[in-house]
Protein 1
Amino acid sequence: MEKVRVRFAPSPTGPLHLGGVRTALYDYLFAKNQGGEFVLRIEDTDTARYVEGAEDYIEEALEWCGIIADESPKKGGKFAPYRQSERRDIYDRYTEEILKTDYAYIAFDTAEELDAIRAEFEAKGDVFSYDNKTRNLLRNSIALSEEEVQKLLDEKTPYVVRFKMPIDRTLNLEDIIRGHSSVNTNTLDDKVLVKNDGMPTYHFANIIDDHEMEISHVIRGEEWLPSLGLHTLLYEAMGWEAPQFAHLSLILKPDVSTLINKDNIDSITKSFTEEFVMKNSQFSFDESAAIIKSFFSEVKSPRFKSMLNENEKDNEITASVKQFLKKGLSGKLSKRDGDKFGFPVFPLDFKDPATGNISKGYRENGYLPEAFINMVALLGWSPADDKEILSLDEMAKEFDLNKVHKAGARFSKEKSEWFNHQYIQLKLDEELLQILKNSDLNLNIEDGKLLKIIHLMKERATFPKDIYENGKFFFEAPISYDEKASKKAWNEETSAILGELASNLEGTEFNAENLKQIVHDFAENKGLGMGKVMMPLRLALVGELKGPDVPDIMELIGKEESISRINNAINNFK
């Protein structure tokens, strides 16, 4: 059996998307499951779209996720270099080879010439394609004589290398996830293999690199399915054995009904309206916003989808809004979705060097890498027994490409938060202590006390910062008191009751067990129900009727602070 070798080959044209992380993860899991090797290769031939810092971002993101390559630009390996921009001499050699076959030719058509031909076709209601029906009419080495070609070459006329698609062949294609398919070559065009600057396009470069690096399996997104016929023929043209292919389904936009609520409907409406008016400048912002909000107000109704499909008596703006929303709320998950609905689509924050804009990252939003990777893994793959919480090693032991779904996987913000909550619970208190100490929170408290706070608060935490946010009363006294809680917990007798309790606390040993007994005895001696004492006491300490057991709070903030907060509350409710 051949050694399994897989590669993740991103382009450094921006931050790594959730879908890219999943592809890298499935590559990694498959390699580890099969005892194989995982290669990181940077496909940086698209110089026009190259983004400074993107390659470093990709490597840092994968490291944060725990997806460690066996070979990479940074680590090296026996098939180095691992950047396409450093492999020009290899591509030049194979360009010469393919031009000796009947599978490639050179074309001298300029962009302007092709635009003019495209316009002629469109004027007749046709669509132009550079293929086996048109290539004999264009400026290339098939249509021109040898003398004409040589003359153009002698004059240093720029040219590209195109693949010569065979005529009327049925290609039988196999995919591990999707099974058998076929395509007729008459439906495929003559793709550019080498650009006029001498650099190969993705199609040619990745075939060469996969062959040179002995890649056995190519796992990639379904957007590359239409290229499978071309790539299969390229292997044939070069006389090479093709790897096995597996095309992953899309990660789909989340269900909008789970994202819109009364607190965010206005901001989401504004975001959608800005995009709509940008594309439809003939409509006013206010009128567009009113229509969009009217639809979003019904988003949790069973009628919502049918409302978007109804078209009777629609005026122009309503019809346009419906089309815009149908398109904008379905399909592939994008960065815009994260911006609109307030969730990250990138593993780490990314600052665009051109605009200075920062795109949200899971790491900076408080997600643990283990939770993030677990969530991503289950976007399209089902482990045995429908298990949901798995470590990276456990995933690798179970991973099977045959269990990867053909259908698109719908992203869920709610589920991603659920995963993070589960992993927060699995963390040792000491681990969370280090995470909090390394955060930008201003925690002016000794480690021992912080550990106790973590133990009390982590059960309610989805993110590490929630331990602080939900337990802020441990770090600072309340400056106001919840109005609804105040009406429930405080009456004309309460100040006297808490004043007397505060006096009783002066000479008390301040630990939770002792405090619980003291408060209980105080209430019993006064003939009061525990609620008459505990509720206002909690309100005085916290500012709301929430938090862990009152004696635990008192022990951690200390005697002086506890009595001070009780007196502050008494003064507030005078």
Note: The longest strand covers residues 170-175.
Protein 2
Amino acid sequence: MKIFIKLNLLTLYLIFSFGSEQVVATGLPKENNHFSLDELRSSIQLKEDKSTFLYCTEASTVKGELKLVGGNNMECKGNFELAWDINVPSNGIYELYLIANIRKEGENTDILFKTTGENMNFKLKPTKGPYLGGRNFQRIELESEISLTKGQQMVSFSAKGISGDHILLDFRSIELVPISAKKSIEKENLRALKSRESVDWLVKSGYGLMFHWTSESVQHDGSIKSYEEAVNEFDVKKFADMVEDTGAGYVIFTIGHAESYCPAPIKSWEKVHPGQTTQRDLIAEIADALNKKGVELICYINGPLGFNLDVKKETLTDNEQQSFVNNFQDILKEMGSRYKNQIAGYWFDSWYQIFEKFPEVPFEKFNKATKIGNQNRIICLNSWIYPSVTPWQDYWAGEVGSPIDIPVNGYMQNGPAPELPYQALLIMEPYWVQQKSEMPNPRLSSQKLSKYILDCMDNGGAVTVNLGIYQDGTVGKKALDVMKEVKSIVRK
């Protein structure tokens, strides 16, 4: 047995190696790699009024061959164990859920969830959903009632006796739901459902376009002008005419992507991001030009960047959390009051990251702020491939990249968000932002894309296609030709 000890202020790290098995009493690595020495995690305080999530990134003890991958989920291969140090405020009963993508190779694997007083065994079943070829994360109920006693204790999630070396599942988190809070949780869910705005116009439009026009977008020669100069030179009429040529029913246009720039004189944005607004109101001009052609505008805002929350920090202070709330209230109030019906919707990014670091985020308050000036405005909060972080939204963000299974009566079957109206977001090029002079060939053919759009329309869903866009507001000819052909097929 080898023992390695490293003292760093008050943190003590231990690694015990027993032959080929290694127990690592550490947190998880920041890199996309196997475990390395890191900070020992502090105890997780369970909540009595809402769910508590035990994320893979918060595990205090790990065993086995585990790999943290992009998006903070963990590939679990062979025998493994994850454990968390939790603090239970009072004796209570909880529902137990697993947030994971269970692979075919993991079918019938025996899983043990262990608390101080109980051992619970489960068999894994492959998850189902719309993603073709897998990666269907779901919220899976493991046990309707588990008892946890007051005080600090360890809980663990493990698989043993595995002979193969296949990846069994992609683990995101364990969710503990206090039975005592079930009624209040259900009441909030009902309020959220009743508050949802109709997405009929989105569904009827069939398809739209998204443009990642950012401070990192390049000119045709690869150069980049200052953001304000690019905003001042943006040809709105030419842009709107191009959109009309594609037959798109709506446009999602980015604000605060990559860097916190806003193409309009929004005072509250300028207060949070000095020097990153413009005198020209490109949002209003684009909205007016599109609306004249019967096309709606949806604004993209990156949550952490736009409202200033550092989701890369280990922990957030109360002041940082309150500042985030104040920022989204001020910015959304000003934008809503200024643009009213000019903005038909929002597409908010990076919300699974926000929720992981700030689980007490006031979603109902956020939702109300997004409706200022236009009660019919529709919104989504992007949770990527994971289950929705909140019912306080109107449609699924659907960041899928490539076509997935079509909806049934407007909703996905199984998968991460079967409760939200279906909207799938594809990419025409192999990336979101045009950061090179050469525009690549389209990933999607007009025939394939048209069929997918028509199938989704027939089943109550909408499809959005992200087109690469240069800093001057133009797009690639080949991609534009594909969309013109789509228009001729879908809009005939």
Note: The chain is about 25% helix and 30% strand.
Protein 3
Amino acid sequence: MSRLPQWVGGLGKGLIRLADRLDARKAGAEPESGSRPVPEPTPARPHVPVPDPDPAAVPAPETLPPPPGGAAARQDPVAAVPWGMRVAAEVSWRLLVLAGTLWVLMRVISAVRLVVLAFVAGLLITALLQPTVGWLKKRGVPRGLATAMTFVSGFVVMGLVGWFVVWQVTENLDDLSKQVQHGISELKRWLLNSPFHVTEDQINNIADKLSEAIGTNTKDITTAGIEGVQVIIEVLTGILLAMFSTLFLLYDGPRIWQWLLRLVPLAARQGVAGAGPRAWTTLTAYVRGTVIVALIDAIFIGIGLFFLDVPMAVPLAVFIFLFAFIPLVGAVVSGALAVVVALVTRDVFTAAMVLIVVLAVQQIEGHVLQPFILGRAVRVHPLAVVLAVAAGSMVAGIGGAVVAVPLVAVTNTVVGYLHAYAKENAARTRPDAPPEEPAATPAVPPPPA
């Protein structure tokens, strides 16, 4: 207890000396800043003989650097996250936004798929008929008259083709039913004599089950018939919408394109203006090439069916032409239909010969016609074709399967062009780019009409 007053006195003297040194540092820093006059030196306290420090000798306060890996480095939470995780997070939320946008778009398309399919069908027909309008305009025909002539002639031809198919089917329906019954009897006899050891009781059991299934599901068949009437009404509505879309696209295609360009932001307008005509070129090449390939398939397979004496060879050829607009899947379905008709109306040998003809024509189509006619303009990987057809059929049925592949081909062209355009634009605006860099991409005119 006797040393406690000495400790308290020493602590007080130390605090006084510390205060004097802080005042001296402050007095030495103010003359350097020049913002305030130098205060008078603090007089020494009588009980503590502390010499008056020289302001010039006192160094200015220095800012100490933050310790490496210390508290200052831990102030930013983002810096503590690994770089790979940050990149994964950035990519993930963008993918989520894109997936949500696609989901909403698919929902909207599913809600109005009749209108969307009708417009897309009109777009495909326009791509097929537009060269005729351009050819007539070059010959001096006014735009309105050229559009009307092309529109009327195109839909008259398509209507005649549909009428011819219906007429052939109705004319040969009675004969076809007799040949089907005869073919079923021949098939039954062949199964009895085949090495599969099928007995007549088993065949009769299968026939009885089929009859029972048809009898018990009469209500479902009637409901399906009523729904079939609704489907016919929707098909007629879609045909009318497609006709109106084709007419206005043929007549006012450039104006519609210019109006769509004005909706695009100015910064991206030049790239979209260049991508649009290229997308139209791809779509036109796809439609023309598909029509030519389908026509060749229908002609040669139809000739084979005619020489093999298969009933309704011409309607089957027309079905092969129509199903050719569904890549890969359509060829399989139409070929299988021709083989089944040959099997139930003729015999197994005729069906085998029809199968050989169909496979030969399809192989020539896949390895010769499509690469030569379509070329590189609409080159899409077969896996992308299968996935697109499957997704399109799930979203919008047969119509979705028809428009899926041209949509993928156009998207591939647009994305490829925009990627090249963005890369060229980035190289052109680089600070160290030489003056010989290529100039801005010229604006491509809208697709002609």
Note: Residues 127 and 439 are 32 Å apart (CA to CA).
